[in-house]
């Protein structure tokens, strides 16, 4: 038997072409093409058998030719604040996480782009577990597709690439996933409501800037000097802060700086001044992120009043700043925590040992 083609790993236009060719071969009227395409992402079907608007024989014929793979929901946790965390098992047994965060009329879905991560940021649970592999475009966008297939479907309004992995180390698949997330005939999330968060992978920032859609860029700064940043984020050796700031300045849309507050490490007055200076240079918006309790070994969260003081120092320098709410504290919602709990840690391996790590 020939291998079935995964229709979900194609753009909608390409999938449409494949389905149209199959319909022609099967002697089916052309309106059947639109019926199938609609059930790929927009109103997703669990399987071809689920497409009851098609004759049974046609469903079976499509199933012989094409695949509509699912991400298997292995664990779901619901926080008292409404945050829902999902652990998905992939076909090869890898596990990835997505977190749905409701806020008023919005639901933001935080998605993963890699199984594990090679970058070993000192404060991150995913970094501690090491890198397994890149996700494919369908495995990335599929996390949002699965939200529509829940017994009580979740309508995702915003997407952030802040789950497991560094999205710009897997640019080809992430770029394909961005198309699927944004395409009105797929998941239809507006480009301005989709944020790529990166530690500052420069070729990836350039590639993202070349896309015509207004996708948003967030850069994990986490320390305002090279000296401190190197100790927290080993990638700073390859892409130093000054280069990352230069890239942020020329990015043609407003950039957000992410800054996790690590008690006694990066939350002093001097650091607030230095961060304020960098943010002003780039016209960046700053998000201060309280450290998730239990999310990382060897660090303690900055006290809430200290975070407020840090935010005030930034505002005094004319920087726009927000303090993020810590969500899902009772369900281990920080990136990588659920997988670490369920599957245990593995020794991190350096990025250069991973043949399939792509730098844009
Ligand atoms: S913070 Fe992001 S880039 Fe750093 S180790 Fe964690 S997942 Fe990787």
Number of strands: 14
- What's the domain count? 2
Oligomer description: single chain
**Architecture (CATH level 2) name of the largest domain:** Alpha-Beta Barrel
The proportion of strand residues reads 15-25%
Order of helices and strands: EHHHEEEEEEHEHEHEHEHHEHEHEH
Just give the CATH class of the largest domain. Alpha Beta
- Major β-sheet strand ordering: 3-4-5-6-9-10-11-12-13-14
The CATH fourth-level homologous superfamily of the largest domain:
Aldolase class I
Write down the overall geometry.
elongated
Mean of residue pLDDT? 90
CATH topology heading of the largest domain: TIM Barrel
Distance between the termini: 35 Å
**Residue windows where pLDDT falls under 50 for at least 5 positions:** 345-360
The value of Rg in angstroms is 21 Å
Quickly count the helices. 12
Largest sheet: 10 strands, mixed
**Approximate helicity band:** 25-40%
- Output the structural class: alpha/beta
Summarize the structure.
The protein is of the alpha/beta class and 360 residues long. The protein is built from 12 helices and 14 strands.
């Amino acid at each position: 038997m020939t291998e079935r083609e995964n229709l979900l790993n194609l753009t909608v236009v390409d999938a449409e072409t494949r389905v149209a060719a199959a319909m022609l071969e099967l002697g089916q009227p052309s309106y059947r093409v639109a019926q199938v395409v609609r059930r790929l992402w927009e109103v997703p079907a669990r399987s071809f058998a689920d497409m009851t608007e098609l004759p049974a024989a046609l469903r079976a014929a499509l199933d012989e030719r094409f695949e509509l793979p699912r991400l298997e929901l292995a664990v779901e946790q619901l926080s008292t604040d409404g945050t829902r965390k999902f652990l998905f098992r992939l076909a090869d047994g890898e596990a990835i996480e997505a977190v749905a965060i409701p806020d008023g009329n919005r639901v933001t879905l935080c998605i993963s782009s890699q199984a594990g991560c090679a970058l070993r940021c000192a404060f991150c649970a995913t970094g501690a577990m090491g890198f397994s592999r890149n996700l494919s475009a369908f495995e990335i966008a599929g996390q949002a597709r699965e939200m529509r297939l829940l017994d009580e479907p979740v309508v995702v309004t915003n997407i952030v690439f802040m789950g497991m992995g560094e999205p710009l180390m897997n640019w080809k698949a992430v770029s394909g996933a961005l198309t699927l997330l944004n395409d009105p005939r797929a998941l239809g999330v507006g480009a301005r409501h989709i944020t790529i968060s990166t530690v500052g992978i420069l070729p990836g920032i350039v590639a993202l800037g070349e896309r015509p859609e207004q996708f948003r860029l967030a850069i994990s700064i986490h320390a305002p000097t090279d000296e401190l940043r190197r100790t927290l984020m080993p990638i700073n050796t390859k892409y130093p802060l000054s280069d990352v700031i230069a890239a942020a300045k020329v990015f043609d849309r407003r950039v957000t700086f992410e800054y996790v507050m690590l008690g006694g490490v990066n939350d002093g007055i001097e650091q607030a001044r230095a961060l304020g200076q960098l943010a002003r240079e780039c016209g960046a918006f700053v998000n201060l992120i309280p450290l998730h309790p239990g999310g990382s070994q060897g660090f303690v969260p900055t006290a809430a009043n200290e975070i407020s003081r840090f935010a005030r120092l930034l505002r005094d320098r004319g920087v726009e700043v927000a303090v993020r709410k810590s969500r899902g504290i009772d369900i281990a919602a920080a990136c990588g925590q659920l997988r670490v709990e369920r599957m245990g840690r593995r020794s991190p391996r350096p990025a250069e040992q991973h043949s399939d790590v792509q730098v844009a």
